[in-house]
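Friendly challenge for the regulars: who can give me the structure tokens for this chain first? No prize, just bragging rights.
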Amino acid sequence: MEFVEAHITVEGQKKASPLAYGLLHAELAASIDISEVTRLVRGEAGIEETSAWQLAVKVPEPRLAAIVEHIRKKYVDEQIPILTFPVLGESREYPDWL
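First reply, four minutes later:
Bragging rights claimed.
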């Protein structure tokens, strides 16, 4: 089975925690890492440093579409970035519950 890691970035912990709990309660994920990240953005006024919160979710690849749909329905008016990466290497050793 192929696994992916989805990085979902939101503004503030007040969005990150409910989003993570929602994914867990919907049984779309078994484990989610939440981290505060520093973001550097180059704009018209120069480089701006901001903070955001990032959820890292490792899931079987077929479950990814349901996660994206769940987020798009919950945050209709926002553009929540969702980046995905293949889990390479020892993914065979992930437990079945993942």
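Residues 15 and 53 are 8 Å apart (CA to CA). The chain has one domain: 3-87. Your move, everyone else.
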